[in-house]
Write a structure and sequence with these properties.
heterodimer, A: mainly alpha, Cytochrome Bc1 Complex, Chain C, two-stranded antiparallel sheet, 21 helices, B: 274 residues, mainly alpha, Cytochrome Bc1 Complex, Chain D, domain 2, 11 helices, extended, membrane (chain A), EC 7.1.1.8 (chain A), Cyt_b/b6_N (chain A)
Chain lengths: 582, 274
């Protein structure tokens, strides 16, 4: 036989060994990650996410607080489903809360009492669930305020703003469904009110109520139905929208505050791995710990105090959870004389406006805002650098005005609590808040806009003449002046980086080149007027030329400072800051 | 044989004419007396203490105290002064006992409502003297018997149901109080003696409706006292109750301390740059 005892399919001596195909653009990943990547190709996407850069600012963590509160809420919610019985069959309570022993109540309420008193750790978990729900909506609201006032909703992030608004609105409904489940006196009163709101809907009202409650109020269907909404449908939609929200943040990259080295085309910060993974992971435990701390010290929704719901009973101080106070406040403020009857049909306008229109109108306004602003200002560019709120006086003013309206309505809902706690007449409070509903937002807008313009002027002043040092110097001629310390270029950049805004010049295009009036004149006029409203009288940032002029206009005190400025004037304020990267 | 009711008997008698014509009237009379006696035995009892006949001395002492401390508003004879103070004829000793022992009367200053004052300026003897005098102005509810003001003898579960249907809409389900119109309010019922809770229900002070003994029997009133007391004994197992005023203080807490705590953590973490 042959001396080369080589099987036909074996390698020859000069064959090169086959290389493992690697994922494109990635170095070889080992261990478990490699094992997974070999089978799923996940390393590419994960690698993309891990290398994502996030800018460092506390206000970018508000959304994180909301996210973590939601996760805490879901974890504790799963625990509660193990004991909660969402049915309305009557039982006689035999649990350990003495004042209710022997009282007839629904299974839903009895099982909530059992969770609170007879399930180990049940009360704490219930309180964590409720506090995290409240804090979830607080945090997402504060996050929305941050996004609004810094202009983070602008192109390309309008879709994510809309998703955020929907998330927020669904969170209100999810919260209300949860609030209604224990079937205590407070939640039953809330459901009774909700049923009244449905009835106020013209034509469909009674059908709607009958369909949802499975007959007359209260029936035995509403709690099982709300339970399905609360633990299945709404959380499902919330998680789906939330995932889309996060994916869009990753795809569109994070916005950042203006500063030296931060441009519309970069993101200055740290990559997710390892810095942000550690920070964000740690922050989850801080949030969870904070909520657990609050829940162990502060009682929330003491259902055992309220007692079981009976349609013939109610309690003073019956309010919904805070996020539903504003429609409730509108109901309390709307005067009864708005109601009228046509052909035997009652139009309960005070109820229709307060309960059916306020929430949709608020959210419609929020959802529409980015598109309205883009149309008015004609700004179709992408924005990745955030605005300082003062540099957008009208937007900031509108935001504060809307917030003021919301706050007035929210406080209106607590008019009875304010009356007893501050020894006031509930009638006076209600009348004052009726006036404030209209006057408050106007004052808020005017004051905010003026404050923003003043702050902008102050910024100009600071840039042009430096910071007041508090040192008074006596000149050779016996005159006195204050020494102004020059700004360092890094600080100055933040004050001068923004754009100068001008109203759109639309009147000039009233006619085309043939002298024929263009179509849509009214719309264009409206747009021109709104544009003037936004940017008319805007304070512009200091230009390099102005800065130069200010430094050489021969003020006495500036001559004194000129020694300090000698080295500084060589540094181009714009160029120099570009080099500064964290 | 099943016992006959008086009406059955009456009808039968009209059919059988052998009896004396007066028999019908007599039987009706008997029936009425029987019904009256049964009602008197079964009807809800008022829980008035067997009022010891107040000696004329005590009433006189009460009158003097009344003239010195109360007459400015309620008039020299306790018959009220128009637009200043109401007549006290017929309000009874229970009313005086409640108003003065909780410090509401005499009012320190005119106002929409007399507030509860912890520091009561009158001794028990003085108050009962004034009560005796006011009771002498006209018949009214007397100070309740201790039997019915002792919450430990009542049924809290039943009292809770009565409380939720009749009291909670103004006083709040936790008894924390609530607002009424134009600055008036339903005060908190926690930390109030059983006797005073009873007297308040019995006399309906200020804006409160009267829950007389036909409406809520003395036993019912005692159950309500039992519920209020037991609810307080149960305490707040969940921690600080934030005034037991429900979602408004809870929301305020979430918007201030709650989110403040978490934002502080975020700021701290944001400062921890590499």
């Amino acid at each position: 036989m042959s001396t080369t005892a080589r099987p036909a399919d074996a390698l020859r001596a000069d064959d090169t060994t086959r290389r493992e195909p690697a994922s494109p653009g990635l170095k070889k990943v080992g261990g478990v990650a490699g094992w997974i990547d070999d089978r799923t190709g996940a390393a590419k996407g994960v690698g993309y996410l891990m290398k994502k850069v996030f800018p460092d600012h506390w206000s970018f963590m508000l959304g994180e607080i909301a996210m973590y509160s939601m996760i805490v809420c879901m974890l504790t919610g799963v625990f509660l489903t193990l004991w909660f019985d969402p049915t309305q069959g009557e039982v006689v309570y035999e649990g350990s809360y003495v004042p209710l022993q022997g009282v007839e109540m629904s299974r839903a309420y009895a099982s909530t009492l059992d969770i609170s008193f007879d399930v180990k750790g049940g009360l704490l978990i219930r309180q964590i669930h409720h506090w995290s729900a409240l804090l979830f909506i607080v945090a997402l609201s504060v996050h929305m305020l941050r996004v609004f006032f810094t202009g983070a909703f602008r192109k390309p992030r309008e879709i994510n703003w809309v998703i955020g608004c929907l998330l927020s609105m669904l969170a209100l409904i999810e919260g209300f469904a949860g609030y209604s489940l224990p079937d205590d006196l407070l939640s039953g009163t809330g459901l009774r009110a909700a049923q009244g709101f449905m009835l106020s809907a013209p034509v469909i009202g009674s059908y709607l109520s009958y369909a949802l409650f499975g007959g007359g109020f209260p029936g035995e269907d509403i709690i099982p139905r709300l339970y399905s909404l609360h633990i299945l449908l709404l959380p499902g939609i919330l998680i789906a929208l939330f995932t889309a929200h996060i994916v869009l943040v990753a795809v569109q990259k994070h916005t950042q505050y203006p500063g030296p080295g931060r441009t519309n085309d970069n993101v200055v910060g740290f990559p997710v791995m390892p810095v942000y993974a550690a920070k964000a992971g740690g922050f989850f435990f801080i949030v969870f710990g904070g909520i657990a701390l609050i829940s162990s010290l502060v009682q929330i929704n003491a259902v055992w105090v309220h007692g079981p719901y009976m349609p013939n009973a109610t309690t003073a101080g019956a309010q919904p959870d805070w996020y539903m106070l504003f429609p409730d406040g509108a109901l309390r403020l709307l005067p009864g004389w708005l109601e009228h009857t046509t052909f035997g049909f009652t139009w309960a306008w005070p109820v229709i406006i307060g309960s059916l229109l306020v929430i949709p109108l608020f959210y419609a306004g929020m959802i529409a805002y980015p598109f309205i602003e883009a149309w008015v200002t004609g700004d179709q560019r992408e924005h990745h650098l955030l605005d300082r709120p003062r540099n957008r006086p009208v937007r900031t003013g509108l935001g504060v005005a809307a917030f003021t309206l919301w706050a007035v309505l929210t406080f209106a809902s607590s008019n009875d609590i304010m009356a007893i706690k501050f020894d006031l007449s509930i009638n006076d409070i209600t009348n004052a808040l009726r006036v404030l509903t209209f006057v408050g937002p106007l004052i808020a807008f005017w004051a905010t806009r003026r404050i923003c313009l003043s702050l902008q002027r102050h910024d100009r002043e600071t840039v042009l003449h430096g910071r007041e040092s508090g040192m008074i110097v006596r000149g050779p001629d016996g005159d006195f002046h204050e020494v102004h310390e020059p700004l360092d270029p890094y600080e100055r950049w933040t004050l001068v980086q923004h754009e100068a805004h001008e109203p759109l010049q639309l009147e000039a295009d009233e006619v085309d080149e043939n002298g024929v009036a263009r179509k849509g004149g009214a719309k264009r006029k409206l747009r021109a007027r709104l544009s003037e409203f936004y940017y008319g009288g805007a304070v512009h940032p200091v230009t390099p030329a102005e800065l130069e002029a200010a430094h050489h206009d021969g003020h006495e005190h500036e001559a004194i400072e000129s020694a300090n400025r000698a080295d500084e004037s060589e540094v181009d304020p714009v160029r120099s800051v570009g080099a500064e990267r964290h | 044989m099943t016992p006959l009711t008086t009406t059955d008997e009456g009808r039968r008698l009209t059919r059988i004419d052998r009896r004396h014509p007066a028999a019908l009237a007599l039987l009706l009379m008997l029936g009425l007396i029987l019904a009256g006696t049964v009602f008197a035995a079964v009807a809800p009892k008022t829980a008035e203490a067997s009022a010891p006949a107040q000696s004329a001395d005590v009433v006189e002492e009460g009158r003097e105290l009344f003239v010195a401390n109360c007459a400015t508003c309620h008039g020299e004879n306790g018959l009220g002064i128009k637009d200043v103070g109401p007549s006290l004829a017929g309000v009874g000793a229970a009313s005086v006992d409640f108003q003065m022992e909780t410090g509401r009367m005499p009012m320190a200053k005119p106002g929409v409502q007399a507030p509860r004052v912890e520091d009561v300026k009158f001794s028990d003897e003085q108050i009962s003297a004034i009560a005796a005098y006011v009771a002498s102005l006209g018949a009214g509810p007397a100070i309740p018997d201790e039997e019915y003001t002792d919450g430990s003898k009542g049924d809290a579960g039943k009292g809770g149901e009565i409380f939720r249907v009749n009291c909670a809409m103004c006083h709040n389900s936790a008894g924390a109080g609530g607002a009424l119109t134009r600055g008036k309010y339903a005060p908190e019922v926690t930390g109030v003696e059983g006797k005073h809770i009873y007297e308040a229900m019995l006399t309906g002070p200020q804006s409160m409706p009267v829950f007389n003994d036909q409406n809520l029997t003395p036993e019912d009133k005692r159950d309500v006292i039992a519920y209020i007391e037991q609810q307080q004994e149960a305490g707040n197992p969940g921690g600080n109750p934030l005034g037991s005023l429900g979602p408004v203080p809870e929301g305020l807490f979430a918007w201030t301390i709650g989110i403040g705590l978490l934002i502080t953590a975020a700021v701290w973490l944001g400062k921890k740059s590499a």
